[in-house]
Amino acid sequence: MNRIITIGREFGSGGREIGRRIAENLHIAYYDQEIVTELSSRSSLTEGYIRNVEENHPLPLLPITTARTFGLSSNQAAEQQLSVYDLESRIIRDMASKSDCVIVGRCGDYVLWDMEPFRLFIYADIESKLARCRRKGSDAKELSDRELRRRITSIDKKRARYYNFFTDQTWGDKTNYDLCVNTSLTDIKKLAATLTQYLESLL
User: Fold this and answer.
1) How far apart are CA 39 and CA 138, in angstroms?
2) Is 180 in contact with 109 (CB distance < 8 Å)?
3) Predicted confidence (pLDDT) per residue in 51-65, tens digit
4) 3-state DSSP call for residue 125?
């Protein structure tokens, strides 16, 4: 069975960078935005639309006004969202079946449960997330601390709603993961190296 590592992460926690570095250290495939690109190539949906579905409330929580934005009835929008999740899940399973890999987000831990992935969840305190966002994102520099804090909280809430809706589990609940890692005040590069050593001893 392939070595599969899934990563759930809070926004600004450095989870994406940790995933990429672990994949590089282990010389295995890394999938994040590549999943969206593949989904778009297999469907008539644009990458922008797919990201919008991932980042917004799953129906029936999706407001009717949001459905109208895409020119769809609420039922059509719900079917579209479920179709995106289903196709994305199949793509994730295809990728995981082909080779050892790291998969970031998109309910990967749940989608691949029967393939026994090692499930990581990355989190950090709000001050560390604020600092990391300011270092990494040019748009964050234009926001006040209050505005950026609100943005981080909003994104995490959306991720939680998406995960909770499609998995019937609780996003960030330690019982759903094999290891939860706090990246507050931590050097991501060094932490990724330590995690790589740990994973090599297990997988």
Assistant:
1) 28
2) no
3) 888 877 665 544 444
4) coil
Tokens of 59: 């129906």
Phi and psi at residue 70, to the nearest 5°: -95, 5
Residue type, 16: R
Token representation of residue 9: 């992460």
- 110-147 CB burial, b ≥16 within 10 A, e <16: bbbeeeebbbbbbbbeeebbbebbeeeeeebeebeeee
Token couple for 184:
């507050």
Please report the beta strands in 53-174, taking only residues with DSSP state E, as ranges in sequence order: 101-104, 118-123
Beta-ladder partners of 16: none
Both tokens of 43, joined, read: 């469907």
Phi and psi at residue 7, in whole multiples of 5°?
-130, 115
Res. 125: pLDDT tops 50: yes
CB atoms within 10 A of CB 13: 27
- Structure tokens that stand for 78 in this block: 């719900």
Cross-strand partners of 29: 101
Nearest one of 51, 20, 57 to 37, comparing CA atoms: 51
Tokens of 99: 């080779």
Our CA dihedral for 126, 132, 135, 138, rounded to 10 degrees, sits at -70
Let me know: does 92 contact 31? Beta carbons within 8 Å. Answer: yes
From residue 168, give the alpha-carbon distance in Å to each of 70, 110, 111, 148, 164: 27, 10, 12, 29, 5
pLDDT digits (tens, 9 = 90+) for 88-120: 999 999 999 999 999 999 999 999 999 999 999
